Amino acid sequence: MGRAPCCDKTKVKRGPWSPDEDEALKNYLHTHGTGGNWIALPPKAGLKRCGKSCRLRWLNYLRPDIKHGAFTEEEDNIICNLYSKMGSRWSVIAAQLPGRTDNDVKNHWNTKLKKKLLAAKSNPTSNMNEESTYNHASLHFSTPYPVFVPKVEACDPGVSALLNQFTAPTMPFLMDVNYGQTFNSQSMVHDPSHSSLLGISGSSEFGFGAKNSHCFTWSEEGSSISGSSSLAMDNNYGSWSGNGAGGYEGLSMGLGTGFPYDLMSGNWSQETVLEAVPSSYATMVNKPL
DNA sequence: AAAATCGTCAACCGCACGGGG
DNA sequence: CCCCCGTGCGGTTGACGATTT
Questions:
Q1: If pLDDT is split at 50, 70 and 90, which confidence band does A245 have?
Q2: Residue A17 has what pLDDT?
Q3: Which residues form the HTH myb-type domain (predicted)?
């Protein structure tokens, strides 16, 4: 037996919203706010709608800060990058795209980006700027915008240059991590949007010892990540000591993928950085966002 | 020109979570 | 500690316009 529905579906209007309904909802919220209770809102606003429907309409369409229109390439980059790391955490991904909703991002991924990447996978020699991806056998990843560029550099300088050109201007803070060796952790620690991007709430505890081959990655415990979990660095300094100039070599396939999440199969890789890195250096914990 | 197919996106569904009683 | 209820989220559906045959 499932739980009772939130409202009587025979008594509420369903389907597309009319301009009048939009106006009524906007007016009510403008003057009264939600009152902390969406369920009780519709009758007060003179709407014959389910509270959940009102909430959805407001959040996905009526909010004044909603950005309508096509996604930019930069936004695509961010979506792909984050999806590759955390999968379908649409709300988290959308939080990094001002004006975009989780529904927007999800739709955009399902209708455009996923197909684009699938097409690219079936045609690995295609032009990267067109297909927005790069499929490198030795790295066995098929995601578009690698976070861990140093590993890419080790494989193919030409490709590295291409990827660097492609990602650096659009994702500066991620590239800071990518380059790892000299990035300034302060920019991440004190910027809520950046820490949020990494799934970390209360960012003040977050930072890196970011000198000389120190880097950072995601990992997971077990083979899946629950819907309510996020990944965060447990330590104030999440870092590991590489073995000098070849610091990344020891990380091999674990870091080589750079992506615990297989974009195409939808599976989390069993290879984790923790295989190659002492757990005391990179401890991953579940934390609510 | 009409029918079929495809693509997009708003909206719905149902589950999980968390807070309050 | 348990239960109830509201909220948030991801997955899915279906309407509708665009494109192709």
A1: very low
A2: 92
A3: 9-62, 63-117
- Give me the CA A196–C1' B11 separation in Å, rounded: 28
Closest residue to B17 (CA to C1') is A228
What is the arithmetic mean of pLDDT over A246-252?
Answer: 28
Span CA (A114) to C1' (B7), Å: 13
State the burial class of residue A12 (Cβ atoms within 10 Å of its Cβ: 0-12, 13-18, 19+).
middle
Do A116 and A218 belong to one domain? yes
Taking the CA of residue A274 and the C1' sugar atom of nucleotide B11, their distance in angstroms comes to 42
Residues near strand B (C-beta below 7 A) are A 2-3, 5, 9, 14-17, 50, 52-53, 56-57, 60-61, 68, 103-104, 106-108, 110-112, 115, 226-228, 288
Are A93 and A165 contained in the same domain?
yes
* Distance from residue A267's CA to nucleotide C18's C1', rounded to whole Å: 34
Q: Are residues A29 and A103 in the same domain?
A: no
Domain match, A11 and A32 both: yes
Q: Residue A124 — very low, low, confident or very high, per pLDDT cuts 50/70/90?
A: low
Q: How many residues does chain A have?
A: 289
Four-residue CA torsion sign, A268, A274, A276, A282: positive
Between the CA of A109 and the C1' of B9, what is the distance in angstroms?
A: 12
pLDDT above 50 for A154: no
Copy the structure tokens of residue A120. Answer: 């690219």
Burial (0-12, 13-18, 19+ Cβ within 10 Å), A19: exposed
Strand B bases near protein CB (under 7 Å) are 7-18
What tens digit of pLDDT does each residue of A199-212 get?
A: 333 222 222 222 22
The parent domain of residue A77 ranges over 73-286
pLDDT of residue A121: 66
**CA-to-CA distance for A209 and A70, rounded, in angstroms?**
39
Which CATH number goes with the domain that contains A38? 1.10.10.60
Three-state secondary-structure class, residue A273 = helix
